[in-house]
Design the sequence.
């Protein structure tokens, strides 16, 4: 699945998108953040306060307990500050 | 949604002409009694600090989808004749436009409420992020609890 | 009242240019974050009946005084950088402007609330009266309880 | 004192303004309406539902029980319908 990062999450991760194939025991958005955090210090820094990071699956806002099965694109970003 | 309602949504780097957008929504029509416009403009200072510019990042695809979803919700909730939403991205200097919402209706309260609803949602749900250029560096603007509260009033039953 | 606030009040027969009024309030300024405009436009029908035109009568002297009093109240209640109120009189045909309120502030909620407050008061307290031309005659528009209610919310503590 | 009339009150009275000198027992805005109503059918028609008619003294909205002593200009009109 494609993973995208925006704003300071993107800066901390060090890239704006990548293709990832998480192991089958990573079932939810929250578990994906935890799994990424274990991969490197950059991810750990991006997700150090997981409840601040927002997520979307296929362009729709989702909660951390949302399953990721079937997702084409998952995005992580800080709270929105548009308008 | 009524056949006569015109909905325009644009996300663009270029500036826009508020006057032209208002005129396009209402010109030549005699069914519109009220037009409300909101322009969000880049300020030159925040809490006393000088702001050199803002850079607006967005999530292409999702930003359009989120705005369209809220535009549709506004059309369902209020009797609108037309609706225009424009959000800029990229680098914006003080005094320049950031965002425009224009609502047209037969009734003034519908026009006011729909414009406020859309602005509250753009502030809290549309995937845009502002980075400020300040003296000695830049920083991402933090979301304000006050904006979340403003948005929540539209979901109270 | 801040030294930087520009208050413009006009009662006139001539049409006005909404775009120009908005531009004049915000152009070249970097302290304004939000501009809200409300345009009230003459509709071509009311409850299914065709309206040929409106004629607006006013009480010269008192109309200016009432509007100025409410403009001052808005300046005290909300942190506004500028405020423009224009109300036309005389004969106005469908699609033409009747009234314009533009508010400018650092904060969007102040700009929205001040504009709504001023419109609610113009509807219920400013001495203007509308006469409609309909097929087979004319009639004075009746005040609506709904407008009185809208105005009352600003005096609730 | 100068009396002014607007909108349908003006149409019913048949004039837009006039100078009047009411007798001393006419003390309030409400009493002025009652006194005028006794003068002619036109006034009676204009003020037939006195609680609908609004009044202002020297450009300030007033209630029917407001004294008229010292007023330079009193105006009568229907509920406002501007905006």
Sequence:
């Amino acid at each position: 699945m494609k993973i995208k990062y925006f704003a300071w999450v993107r800066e901390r991760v060090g890239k704006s998108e990548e293709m990832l194939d998480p192991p089958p025991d990573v079932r939810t958005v929250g578990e994906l953040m935890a799994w990424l955090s274990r991969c490197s210090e950059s991810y750990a820094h991006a997700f150090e306060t997981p409840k601040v990071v927002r997520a979307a699956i296929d362009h729709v806002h989702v909660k951390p307990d949302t399953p990721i099965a079937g997702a084409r694109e998952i995005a992580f970003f800080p709270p929105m500050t548009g308008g | 949604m009524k056949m006569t309602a015109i909905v325009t949504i644009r996300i663009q780097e270029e500036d826009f002409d508020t006057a032209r957008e208002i005129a396009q929504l209402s010109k030549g029509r005699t069914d519109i009694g009220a037009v409300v416009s909101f322009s969000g403009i880049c300020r030159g200072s925040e809490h006393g600090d000088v702001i050199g510019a803002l850079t607006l990042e967005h999530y292409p695809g999702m930003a359009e989808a989120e705005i369209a979803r809220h535009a549709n919700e506004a059309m369902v909730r209020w009797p609108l004749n037309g609706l225009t939403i424009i959000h800029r991205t990229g680098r914006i200097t003080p005094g320049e436009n950031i965002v425009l919402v224009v609502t047209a209706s037969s009734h003034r309260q519908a026009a006011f409420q729909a414009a406020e609803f859309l602005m509250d949602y753009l502030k809290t749900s549309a995937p845009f992020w502002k980075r400020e250029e300040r003296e000695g560096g830049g920083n991402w603007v933090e979301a304000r609890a006050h904006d979340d509260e403003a948005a929540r009033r539209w979901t109270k039953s």
Observations:
- Chain A has one domain: 2-77.
